[in-house]
């Protein structure tokens, strides 16, 4: 970095600052407003406007057992962990100066959370929890019949139905509370990863590989895998999962990238000498244009993934009756 701040440095700082504040404002208006309208229980389960814990671990495809989504997520996590380990062994921990490794790790965290939550969901499914398999009334009725005395005069049918309803609500709230915070984090990680994967892979394959010559850059099979497996596994998960994709969550994606840029500024202020991506350099009058383009490109990247999600549901509507699939 230059010893003195130039006007274009200040403009770049302003672009990142305004973008960060704007993203936080979007989250406050949409995410925060939605939470304030809900109760304490539903607030912890806000799934892009849908309060349903089963969407975290159920597939959108009719008749598909949640075990297959669990298996896919576990194998994806395992594969990504292996390749990230190989990447660190090849280049040491300094490889994390690249946005690719940040995104790759984020995708791996999503699959780790998804594996845990899917495992819990499969446990519920196997044990046939009354909430999800239509056996709530039968389960509670048997419990009441075993516990109450054999005196038909003491208990009327109306009272039993009222007790069943109360216990049903209690058990339903207990199941929902188990999802809570981690289900919310899982969604944000998924939606942030979606935009970041599109940005990372497009910039790598369409800009860096064909046009930029970097002394630190040498294309090999490991690097190619790091810039393709993240998208492949995430797209496969998207094809199977039932997670929503609200537009305003693009703000998390933008904040993720702003965090990476601020990280680059900090390490360069501390003496780091080279930029992993030439378009992040500040010591050039063209820097504001690059930074502005980077800010704008987040919208089409997130929008492209949103179109992929919509296309999936269009395919579902075409091949299955609406009442069969889980949307």
Provide an overview of this structure.
- The structure is a single chain.
- The protein is globular, with a radius of gyration of 24 Å.
- With 327 residues, the protein is mostly helical.
- α4 (99-126) runs antiparallel to α7, α7 packs across α10 (250-269) and α7 (157-211) crosses α11.
- The chain contains eleven helices and no strands.
- It has one domain.
- Keywords: Membrane, Transmembrane, Transmembrane helix.
- The chain crosses the membrane at residues 6-28, 67-86, 106-126, 194-215, 252-277, 289-308.
Amino-to-carboxy terminus distance: 51 Å
Q: Tell me what portion of residues adopts beta-strand conformation.
A: under 5%
Please report the number of helical segments: 11
Main sheet makeup? none
Helix content: over 70%
Mean pLDDT: 81
Q: What is the β-strand count? A: 0
How would you spell out the order of helices and strands? HHHHHHHHHHH
Question: What structural class should be given to the helix and strand makeup?
Answer: mainly alpha
Number of folding domains? Answer: 1
Unreliably modeled segments:
37-45, 129-141
CA radius of gyration is 24 Å
Overall, the morphology is globular
Keywords: Membrane, Transmembrane, Transmembrane helix
Transmembrane segments: 6-28, 67-86, 106-126, 194-215, 252-277, 289-308
Topology:
Elements: H1 7-37, H2 40-43, H3 66-91, H4 99-126, H5 130-133, H6 136-147, H7 157-211, H8 221-226, H9 229-240, H10 250-269, H11 287-319
